[in-house]
Design a protein that fits this description.
The chain is about 10% helix and about 25% strand. It is mainly beta.
Length: about 425
């Protein structure tokens, strides 16, 4: 219901209600009426109620009535709360006596259907004296009714969390706050909500500042179309249908990646399976590159040596003897005229260190094989300029000019048995 406020002053021995001299007032059951007597003119005149005019019956009506303060001082007022049991016709009067007041009743009006506003009964009074207070009463009701309706209204809303919430439209303000990644801006009667610089947009480019932590990121079902990712940092591990862990690489394609474990296993398997295959004049070789080494061995009369990445193959000492050269293999057919001379054979090259005793004889050197065509003039066989019988078999025939001395014994030890034919 409504609360109706009246301002009371005193002039010419009358109560002035909102400036009107002792008007007849109307009340509606259930409303509250406050008569403000703070004005100093009210001193000595407390506004009271009675069932008789000017309290001629000397009986104050007090049901629902409250008097506050001292008339004529701040805060002073008389309040009456009406109800269905309130006497229909009362009178307000002054405690100081006299004829200061008038009627206060709930008659002479009807009420509206929806909001129960006072509606004066046209023609029910001989004067329109009560119409003014009734209209003012109705206007106060309307004013308070609108305010009460607004006050009673809430804006109900609910977020993703926090449950049901409400805003009292009369006393509270709705604050739309931006959460993580969201900014809000208000201007006039508009609130704009936008993502801030920490959130990637769906079009164009986006620059992130500071460290960002993401949970499960699913862009277009797990793919990033046309995007370039520079120096990504991927911790712990990766997985998915495009990340294969196949040691045999049997599922490899141009749109998948392999794990480091499967790459290592595949490479190890390929290296282990590879052999170095070779063929010789007799027999073949196969070296497992993963577990074996190739050995280059020297055969009869051949020596090998290795250093760094180089293998050296050479003729060993005692490599030229009757075991290595067949009879008559060194002759004019195999060596050109003048090819065995001081340039081709160094001093001391043909001696007991390099040729076994008896290895150069007429079984190995054909007749006339080493002649003036094969041995150039002035060939020096060793550093002393001598051809010794230690290195040449007995009954050896030399054809051509021989420079130097021949010394030694024959096999019997009685002298030198040599046949030297002068050219």
């Amino acid at each position: 219901m409504s609360t109706i406020n009246y301002t009371v002053t005193v002039a010419s021995a009358k109560f002035l209600i909102d400036g009107a001299e002792a008007p007849k007032l109307t009340f509606r059951d259930g409303d509250t009426y406050e008569f403000d007597q703070a004005d100093s003119s009210n001193a000595g005149h407390i506004l009271q109620f009675s069932a008789t005019s000017n309290n001629s019956g000397s009986s104050e009506y007090t049901t629902g009535v409250t008097k506050t303060g001292t008339a004529g001082q701040a805060g002073a007022k008389t309040t009456i709360v009406t109800s269905g049991s309130t006497t229909d016709t009362l009178y307000f009067y002054s405690s100081g006596g006299g004829t200061y007041g008038e009627e206060f009743s709930n008659s002479g009006f009807n009420t509206s259907t929806t909001y129960n506003f006072l509606k004066p009964i046209v023609g029910a009074e001989t004067t329109a004296e009560k119409w003014g207070p009734m209209i003012n009463h109705a206007l106060d009701q309307i004013d308070q009714g609108i305010d009460a309706a607004i006050t009673a209204q809430d804006l109900d809303f609910q977020g993703d969390s926090g449950g049901a919430l409400s805003i009292d439209l009369d006393t509270e303000t709705l604050d739309i706050a931006g959460g993580t990644g969201i900014d809000t801006t208000g201007s006039g009667n508009e609130v704009s909500v936008a993502i801030d610089s920490t959130v990637a947009t769906l079009t164009g480019s986006q620059t992130f500042t500071g460290a960002k932590t993401f949970g499960t990121v699913d862009i277009n079902g797990g793919t990033i179309d046309g995007a370039t990712i520079t120096s990504p940092l991927i911790n712990t591990g990766v997985s998915g249908s495009a990340i294969l862990d196949s040691d045999s690489m049997s599922f490899a394609s141009t749109t998948t990646l392999a794990t480091s474990q499967s790459i290592k296993a595949y490479v190890d398997a390929q290296v282990t399976a590879q052999d170095l295959d070779g063929a010789t004049d007799s027999g073949t070789v196969a070296v497992d590159l993963d577990s074996q080494s190739l050995t280059v061995a020297g055969g009869s009369g051949i020596a090998t040596s290795g250093s760094g990445q180089t293998i050296t193959v050479s003729v060993s000492n005692d490599g030229i003897d009757s075991q290595h050269y067949a009879p008559d293999s060194i002759d004019a057919e195999h060596y050109a005229a003048g090819s065995v001379d001081g340039t081709a054979i160094a001093n001391d090259a043909v001696d007991s260190q390099h040729y076994v005793a008896g290895s150069i004889d007429n079984e190995h050197l054909a007749d006339d094989a080493v002649g003036t065509d094969e041995l150039a003039n002035n060939v020096v066989i060793n550093t002393s300029g001598a051809i010794t019988t230690t290195g040449i078999a007995t009954a050896t025939t030399f054809v051509g000019n021989v420079t130097g001395t021949a010394s030694g014994n024959d096999t019997a030890g009685t002298g030198v048995a040599m046949s030297i034919a002068l050219g």
